[in-house]
Design goal:
Helix content is 83%, strand content 0%. It has helices at residues 4-42, 45-76, 80-113, 124-145, 148-178, 183-215.
Amino acid sequence: MDRRPHIDRQYEQELDELHQKVLEMGGLVEKQIADALRALIARDDAGARTIIERDRSVNRMDVEIDELCLRLLALHQPTARDLRLITTALKITTDLERAGDMAENICERAIELNTEPPLKPYIDIPRMAEIALRMLRESLDAFVREDADLALRVCQADDQIDALNAQVFRELLSFMIEEPKTITRGIRLAFVAKYFERVADHATNIAEMVIFMVKGKSIRHMDQVPPSV
């Protein structure tokens, strides 16, 4: 009896499961980052601690996806496009896990900031968070849709958040120079801005891997993002 059709169906189901699990992990990481911003702005210690605790779920999903990818590699010995898909998923989950760590770090700084009065209203940091979250969401959309053009737009958006991060740092530096009592708060806020910038970096990494998955062409470590791929 030819069992190959059954094996092929199982393989396709497992590839679909892989897509779904990556999306599920990405959705949880997005929620972690969005909730971390809310906890920061609302000065919500309890909410921040909940987010820190929930990072365990992100880590668990990272392990589950790694195990699924390794099983697919071992049992089916995929080639060409499927091999790029599975190895890309392995790398994507690493970046998602690290982006989730940024949410935890933001919450830790938020709890510390809550021990002192607010330094200033939040304006640019929420803008950074909005851009970083959009980049993360679009990089995952590009992965699922195998859309290299969308992935490239994510890469090109990274300059915008880098500029905002530099602007936040300059403003905080001026606060700290003018009033030394603000130094501790200023440094913590500078870290928060850097964490959101790192989320955008992880989104960019994911987008670059999607381009490789779809096109078989790596744009990582290039000095400039190409206008097209």
